[in-house]
Amino acid sequence: MRKLIPCYLAGFSSARQLQRRLFAATSLADWHAAAADPEACGFDPSEPYPVQALRVARLKGAGLVRGGAAQKVVLPPGWLEEGSDEDDDSLLECLDEASCEG
User: Using CA atoms in the order 70, 75, 77, 83, what is the torsion angle rounded to 10 degrees?
Assistant: First the structure.
């Protein structure tokens, strides 16, 4: 969960203290306390989404998370071929709203 904090808060100038507080959380209660009152950390929830954050490299070893060269994201061998039979309804079953979780 902590590795995703910079991804969600990237580019927000008022999020620095909130980010520090979330990283410093040692329990779920600390996490909930920080998230429940972000303004106590100086975060301005009305701050518009920073357009420059759209271009920030995220995860897989790039950008704010680790720095350095980004890793290429790849699918496992045969992933796209698996279940590509046109008569196979398993994909449609997965996409059915009734079978979705959450």
Answer: -170
Q: How far apart are CA 85 and CA 46, in angstroms?
A: 49
The Cα–Cα gap between 48 and 55 comes to 16
Q: Rounded CA gap, 15 and 27, in Å? A: 20
Q: Residue 92, Cβ neighbours under 10 Å: how many?
A: 9
Selected residue with higher pLDDT from 94 and 65: 94
In whole angstroms, give the CA distance from residue 40 to residue 43: 7
- Please report, for the chain, the start and end positions of each structural domain, with discontinuous segments joined by +: 1-69
What span, in angstroms and rounded, lies between the C-alpha atoms of 92 and 28? 37
Q: What angle do CA 12, 61, 48 make, to 5 degrees?
A: 15
pLDDT tier, 6 (very low <50, low <70, confident <90, very high otherwise): confident
The answer to whether 63 touches 42, Cβ cutoff 8 Å, is no
